[in-house]
Amino acid sequence: MDKRVTIAEVVGEIRDGMTVGIGGWGSRRKPMALVRALVRAGKKDLTLVTYGGPDVGLLVAAGCVKRVVTGFVSLDSIPLEPHFRRARSAGTIELTEYDEGMLYWGLLAAANRLPFLPIRAGLGSDVMRVNPELRTIRSPYADATELVAMPAVPLDVSLVHLNRTDAGGNGRYLGPDPYFDDLFCLAAKRRFVSCERVLSTEDLIETGPPQTLLTNRSMVDGVVETPHGAHFTSCVPDYGRDEAFQREYATTDWAAFRARYLDSGEDDYQKAVA
Amino acid sequence: MTRAETCVVACAEAWRGDGAVLASSAGLIPQLGARLAQLTFAPELLVTDGEATLLRDGRAEGWLPYRAVFSMVAAGARHVMMGASQLDRFGNQNISCVGPWERPRSQLLGVRGAPGNTVNHATSYWVPRHSPRVFVERVDMVSGIGHDRGAHEIRRVVTDLAVLDFETPDRSMRLRSVHPGVTVDEVIAATGFALTIPAGVPATREPTEEELKLIREHLDPHGLREK
Fold it and tell me: For chain B, what percentages of helix, strand and coil (3-state, to nearest 5) are there?
C-alpha cells in the first residue's frame, strides 16, 4: 500500500488532451510543484477543471491548455490573472464558464456517478447563453420548479496538495478550509496528492482531529512528498502566500519568468525562491 | 464626517432587518458596513473574515468553509454585497468580461458566484466610482441576474455619490438618496440610463455619533476607508 511516486511519474500519467482537475482555490493550496512539472514537460491540449488561480496562468502561458472549465480565475490579492486575461483576449484558449456553485455540483454529480444534479444557480444568467449544451429540468413534484440540470464534470486525473499524508493516501488539511480537494479526487479516474510531509499512519493520526482527514486510501492512486510544493500559493499553517513572488510572477514577462524559475527542476525552483 | 464614512453607513443600512443571515461583501467599504451593522442595529448578522472563519466583533465564533457557503447560498440564508463592473436598470450585473464573451476586450474575474447569489438570496452592490461606464443600458455578460430575469431581490446599490434601489412598479432602478454635497443632476449625468427620480430626493442619512466613533476608533482606526 505504499503509493509514493515521483513528480516525474505523475507527469508521465498525464497525456496530451486529458481533462485534469486541480484542487485548491484561487491562489490557495494549489499543487504548484505538479503544475510546474506539467509546464516543463510541455503537455498540450489539456482541459483544466479548477477554481482558477496561478495554476491556470502558468499552464496557459506555457501553451499547455486547450480549455478552462471554471467559475473564476484570480490570484486573490491580485484580483485578475494576467496570463489568463491575455489568452482570453487573444482567443487562444476555450472557456467553459460556470457559476462556482455549478462547478461544485458538477464535481459532486461525477463523484456520485450521477449524470446531473439540479441547481438554481445559472437560471436567467448568460452562463446559459455561453454554454448552449446546458439544459433545464422541471421538478416532477407538485412544485414543478424549473432548475438547471448541471451535468457531471468527470475528470481523467486530479491533482491536489495537502499538508500531511501517509504513504497510502490518507491525507489531512491543517488550514481553515478543505476547499473541494476530496471531490476532485472522487470525480477522477486517477488521483494524485502532493503534500508537505509524508508521515507514518500513526504519526498522521496524531496531527489533528479525525474530521480533518480529507482523503482516504480509496480516493488516492499516488502520493508525492513535495515540501513547499504549493508555493507561491498559501498552504497555511505551513506557510502563507508569497505575495512578493506572486507580484513578480504577475508583472514579469513570461519568457523571462520561465527561464529564471521554471526551466530547471523543482529543486532548483525551491533554491531560487528560498 | 467624510464621504467614505457616509458610504460605510449606507452599506450597513442595506442589511437592516435581515436577521441571522450571512452578510458577505467584496471590498473594504461594504465589509466595514457589514461589521458596523452587526455591532449596532443588526446584531444577528453573520460576518466572515473573508476566508473560513465566522467573526463576531472581530473574534472567531464559528466555521464556514466554501462548501458551507454554497449551502447558505442555496438555502437563501445570505445577503451579499458584490462589486459590479457593469450594472443595468433592472440590476443585471457583469463581473465576467467586457466586450464579446467569445473574445473579450477585457477579461475580468469570471461570473464567480453571481448567478447563484442573485437567483437564491438578497443581493446588493457597491460601486466605488459611479460612472456611465458602470451604469450601462445593457451589460456585456449577465453574471448576476436582475429583476427582469428572475432575481430573488436586488436590494440596494451604494455608490460614492448616492444610494439606489428598485422600489418602482417594474422593479427598475430608482434614486433613493444622494450623499451630502452631491446633486441629483450629478447622479443623472453619471448614470448611462434613465433612472426613476422621485419628486423629492432626500440626502443619505449621516452617521450617528456612535457610528462615527465605531468606524474611526474600532473598525478602521488606520483610516484605510479613505484610500
Answer: 30, 25, 50
